[in-house]
Design a protein that fits this description.
Two copies of one chain form a homodimer. Chain A is built from five helices and ten strands, in the order βαββαβββαβββααβ. The first copy, chain A, has two domains: 102 residues, Alpha-Beta Plaits (2-Layer Sandwich), CATH 3.30.70.580; 137 residues, Pseudouridine synthase I, catalytic domain, C-terminal subdomain (Alpha-Beta Plaits, 2-Layer Sandwich), CATH 3.30.70.660. In chain A, a hairpin with an 8-residue loop joins strand 2 and strand 3. Chain A is α+β, with helices and mostly antiparallel strands. Chain A is globular, with a radius of gyration of 19 Å. At the A-B interface, strand 4 of A face strand 4 of B.
């Protein structure tokens, strides 16, 4: 009888056609598609653990998952078979074996999300699935100043609810807007890193910072909203399709014996 | 009776779901969709002229078109109405009035195309519509040296057929591979500018340069292929979906009186 090994995978997906990461009774989910692919390959039910339960429409280039599997071929064979079985909007970019006790969510020390905005009068057609189109000119320096308010450890109750329990204290270590060099000069990228995030936290923060960029809110207003710990004070969340989970960090990389 | 004005527009499109730029008896084309939108807005048949007849699957962020129109409202109204009427995979990014004799193809002095490659073992899911996935590692410096061979005025008969006539001499002023800063380190962008291009010329050149990157051809082979003026010597064309028409240049910008 084959013994179970634990595998760790980095996963990319285009969130456009998913109801989100987490499996549901009905509808297409990332977890559901990966579990279905593993079931097809192994003829047995396999449950995967994921680092972040991204919402419907949210993308990932750095989701991390782990699962136990009895696999009789090489690790490379599994990697190739998985990518050949998965639909075109999910790709396993890395696959390693890991420790039996590795958990992608509980073991993570930080997550980084990117939020993309196209800031020009008309939509950018090649980015329409991956960036929020904001047509009014945004004051990016003001948005960056307001972003600084979020750095450090705070109770972020004004920007989201905890996925479980009632602790809404999180530690944000990066929050900045950058204009990448490239073909599309109207593209703005927001990078935010924290130990963990509340439900809809990034989208609520981006929605609020865009209000600063439009001069509907000031930097001081953002500090005030944060201090009041009241979710009703946040601006409406930015749409899901601009958001992408790009990195999950662990204290040390899961050990590979493969 | 309203007099006809001539309009010039910059157009972006996602080529994925088009049979190409040029209108055909059957099937979805960029020209067909724009002419249908103009017909819907004006209740009359409008013929548009385009700068470049991009192939099926090829994208554009800088296509240029022109058309004559009797329009009773403002130019901004026309711009807004067009974008509201066009499907989501076509956007008019700029609209001006222009001289009566302006022709986007015959008046152009140069065109710039970008060809995108993702060079890593597995596909990059967010770029799958816009970049060719090449899994074997490419020698980019060798590809850049071979690209230099193409600079200047040459008979490019080995890389394409003229759209009409039999003159296959073209003048290439830029041909370089760049690795853009950004989230996806495996992304390679080829930029090529010429006074005009032969049919499939960019894709045939990219297909050949990738053979150099794989060390199946040398820089000297590319010079030899060019000198032989024989289309059968080119490598197979790179796939359409990596290609994007990004810029068309005119001697002076079409004059606006709007």
């Amino acid at each position: 009888m084959l013994s179970l090994q634990r595998f760790c995978a980095s996963v990319e997906y285009d969130g456009t056609d998913f109801l989100g990461y987490q499996i549901q009774a009905q509808g297409r989910t990332v977890q559901g598609e990966i579990e279905a692919a593993l079931a097809k390959l192994t003829q047995s039910a396999v449950r995967i653990d994921g680092a972040g339960r991204t919402d419907a429409g949210v993308h990932a280039t750095g989701q991390v998952i782990a699962f136990n599997l009895a696999w009789r071929h090489t690790q490379h064979d599994l990697h190739r078979a998985l990518n050949a079985t998965l639909p075109h909007d999910i790709v396993v970019s890395k696959l390693t074996t890991t420790n039996r006790d590795f958990h992608p969510r509980f073991g993570a020390v930080s997550r980084t999300y990117r939020y993309q905005i196209v800031n020009r009068q008309w939509p950018a057609v090649l980015l329409r699935r991956y960036a929020w189109h904001v047509k009014q000119p945004l004051d990016v320096p003001a948005m960056n100043r307001a972003s600084q308010t979020l750095l450090g450890q705070h109770d972020f109750a004004s920007f989201g609810k905890p996925p479980q329990g009632n602790n809404s204290v999180r530690h944000v270590t990066q929050a900045e807007w950058l204009q990448p060099d490239g073909q599309e000069p109207s593209l703005l990228n927001f990078y935010i890193t924290a130990n963990a995030f509340l439900y809809r936290m990034v989208r609520n923060i981006v929605g609020t910072l865009v209000q600063v960029g439009l001069h509907h809110l000031t930097e001081a207003d953002v500090a005030d909203i944060l201090s009041q710990k009241n979710l009703r004070l946040s601006a409406p969340p930015a749409p899901a399709h601009g958001l992408c989970l790009i990195k999950v960090t662990y204290p040390d990389r899961p050990k590979s014996n493969g």
